[in-house]
Amino acid sequence: NALPEPVAAAPHALGRPARLLSFGRFVAFKNLPVLVRALRDLPDCTLTFVGEGPAEGSIQQALAGHPDVA
Questions:
Q1: How far from 63 is each of 11, 38, 47, 51, 68, CA to CA, in Å?
Q2: Alpha-helix runs per DSSP H in the chain
């Protein structure tokens, strides 16, 4: 196998909020508004979107209804 051995990620520190990153093209088949809605059940998480694409409007609509969007 030409790939190196996998490296275990450091465990998440308890008491610190999780930080999520969505990086890529905004297209409908990725259903990114579902990720926004899931944040309602994860109040200690932050989510950052990086990208652009034809589904950007649907993501913005989902974010508009979210109480903690900055």
A1: 29, 11, 11, 15, 9
A2: 32-38, 56-64
| pLDDT reading at 52 higher than 90 | yes
Beta bridge mates, 47: 20
Sequence-distant (6+) residues with CB within 8 A of 36 are: 47, 59, 62, 63, 66
How do residues 32-48 score in pLDDT, each as one tens digit? Answer: 988 888 888 887 888 88
Decide: 19 and 48 in contact? Cβ < 8 Å.
yes
Q: Which has the closest alpha carbon to 68: 32, 40, 48?
A: 40
Going by C-beta distance under 8 Å and a sequence separation of 6 or more, which residues neighbour residue 45? 17, 18, 19, 20, 39
- What DSSP character marks residue 40? G
